[in-house]
């Protein structure tokens, strides 16, 4: 199979972790007889530095032509303390999501038996956790009208959703639930927000099309609690953009394996795969960042974008092996044991595939 | 001293836990020579049942005339599955906050040494946690214009903040930080929202008036993570209404003592004290609910509304004693040990004051 992949390394440790994901993907391609064409493109702070905007048109064209996008991380400390700077890396991220129509962010949280003791939660609370958030990614308060009035003394952000936007996200949620344990939780704040009431009534109306799926409705504040108390009571959760931003990040730390969590953003024109961790500026260039989340994102890409399940499984299997044998970067190496470099982990995976 | 207190027991277990708080408060008043006048009033589902609205004008007048309000809990399952019912208990809560001008919700999270093993977090993560959220309570997306367009197919909620609203909340935050460790964290989403940028610039401009306070700015998604990872790294946090709703609930479960957490809402006309737990309908009338959060809310009332610090300390001391001696309701009683009834806990506290 010919795989045409746009490669957006981004900022900070992005290039380093992407590098290892490319190595592992190329090794898989060789083993399974595929041919990958990687087309690199700029995004984030490095794009601002090079061409003045964080998501250049050229990058957009490359993404649109590709079969899938593999993405590293964006963000640079020089933009951190001034969220009102006229040009910022995050704008590139939001523009990319919108222009590529990536309306569903798929964020799994699961545990690795060998890493469970890294969790801030007690073992009995986190064990068995295997949940997936579907976060709406191109609507809501992120993209509604925003601005100032009264000489700048009043600010507003409008949160808007249409029934069609809710339906297409919820449809993915129901379909995903059908492939798992047939449990779907719709997270909203329907006791306060009109957009949430639209979410709830839309999902309720879709229940009859998926009679096997058991749907529950929970308020976002209650979910923020239960995620810490009984994360293993959840399976598939669907929610709007801002709630998803907060809850998926909360969910990502409970497993103790944040450095390993992959994600996908799927939608109208293409799909994009990225680690959930950030650009980790302090580690840039040190060859110490954990590449596994990006490598597992590549596995998601093989499976979901190309239907190559065996290839994905082969990657996951060798990652598990590396964890069990302690071939890990310093974030995962127990005190007093050897920590491997980013590139050493990638090399080991390639050698053991 | 004469203390004139409005008593809003509310729904579910509200009346039972309020009853114990009244017993303890009366005992304290007797001991310290104060005279409390309690004026009961209806709110919540019980008010809807009695007079058709969840926050009757009569209740509002009683609250306005009182020196402080002690509040139980509201909410009834018959309204739970239909968040778009025309009249709902929560509307009473929102109306009450708005009409009483209760713009700052004070939500401490702290640990009790004897209960630390109830936390879902590992001991080393939660130990030493002692933080306070100040949540803005009368603005933001809760109270902005909301509605439908396009025959109901588009819903919107407007989030609005003025500089003055941010200033009065932030002022309380700075003042509280000055009485504690002089650390203030402003939680926002300034990389996306215009209202958050107003929050951030307003707080930044106030820094010079409190040169001793160290202020940090963190995005809401990052705080949702760190609250689970390193809750004891926080002290005073200020945030807007919706973020506060989610994060204070998340914070409430990490200590393992949710049934004990008190809260205050302060503002223009009066102040209100309430446990953070809900109306716990399943337990209604069974005399099993934990009254300690309400009793500790009464302690907050003595201290903050009336400046009666010794009285507050006396309540806290006897509550600690009851915990240490295991005079606790079933939610806190370890398996195989005796669980006390709601009223027995209150009686024990009164007897041991
Ligand atoms: C960087 C920021 C704009 C972004 C978001 O809020 O969506 C990030 O937090 C994320 O979740 O991908
Ligand atoms: C019941 C609901 C409207 C309320 C809120 O969202 O403010 C509650 O969750 C709270 O935090 O007091």
From TrEMBL, chains A, B:
Major localization class: cytoplasm
Cell location: Cytoplasm
Residues involved in Mg(2+) binding: 221, 245, 249
Binding site for substrate: 97, 107, 135, 221
Domain Isopropylmalate dehydrogenase-like: 4-349
UniProt-listed HAMAP family: LeuB_type1
Name this polypeptide is given: 3-isopropylmalate dehydrogenase
InterPro entries found in the cross-reference section: IsoCit/isopropylmalate_DH_CS, IsoPropMal-DH-like_dom, Isopropylmalate_DH
Annotated function: Catalyzes the oxidation of 3-carboxy-2-hydroxy-4-methylpentanoate (3-isopropylmalate) to 3-carboxy-4-methyl-2-oxopentanoate. The product decarboxylates to 4-methyl-2 oxopentanoate.
Known catalytic reactions: (2R,3S)-3-isopropylmalate + NAD(+) = 4-methyl-2-oxopentanoate + CO2 + NADH
Subunit structure: Homodimer.
């Amino acid at each position: 199979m010919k795989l045409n992949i746009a490669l957006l390394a981004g900022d900070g440790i992005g290039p380093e972790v992407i590098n290892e994901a490319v190595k592992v993907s190329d090794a898989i391609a060789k083993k399974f007889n595929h041919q990958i064409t990687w087309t690199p493109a700029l995004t984030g702070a490095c794009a601002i530095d090079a061409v003045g905007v964080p998501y250049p048109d050229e990058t957009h064209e490359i993404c649109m032509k590709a079969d899938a996008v593999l993405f590293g991380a964006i963000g640079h400390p020089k933009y951190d303390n001034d969220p009102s700077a006229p040009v910022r890396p995050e704008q590139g991220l939001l523009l990319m999501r919108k222009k590529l129509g990536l309306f569903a962010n798929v964020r799994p949280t699961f545990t690795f038996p060998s890493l469970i003791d890294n969790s801030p939660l007690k073992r009995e609370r986190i064990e068995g956790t295997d949940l997936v958030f579907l976060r709406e990614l191109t609507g809501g308060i992120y993209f509604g009208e925003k601005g100032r009035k009264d000489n700048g003394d009043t600010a507003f952000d409008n949160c808007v959703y249409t029934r069609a936007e809710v339906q297409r996200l919820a449809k993915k949620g129901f379909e995903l639930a059908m492939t798992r344990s047939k449990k779907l939780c719709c997270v909203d704040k329907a006791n306060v927000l009109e957009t949430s009431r639209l979410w709830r009534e839309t999902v309720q109306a879709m229940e009859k099309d998926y009679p096997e799926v058991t749907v529950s409705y929970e308020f976002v504040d209650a979910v923020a609690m239960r995620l810490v108390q009984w994360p293993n009571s959840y399976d598939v959760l669907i929610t709007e953009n801002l709630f998803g931003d907060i809850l998926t990040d909360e969910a990502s730390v409970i497993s103790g394996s944040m450095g390993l969590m992959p994600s996908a953003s799927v939608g109208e024109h293409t799909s994009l795969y990225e680690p959930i961790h950030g650009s980790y500026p302090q580690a840039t260039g040190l060859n110490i960042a954990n590449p596994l989340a990006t490598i597992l994102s590549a596995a998601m890409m093989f499976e979901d974008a190309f239907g190559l399940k065996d290839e994905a499984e082969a990657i996951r299997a060798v990652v598990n092996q590396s964890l069990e044998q302690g071939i890990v970067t310093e974030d995962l190496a127990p005190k007093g044991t050897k920590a491997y470099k980013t590139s050493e982990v990638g090399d080991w995976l390639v050698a053991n595939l």
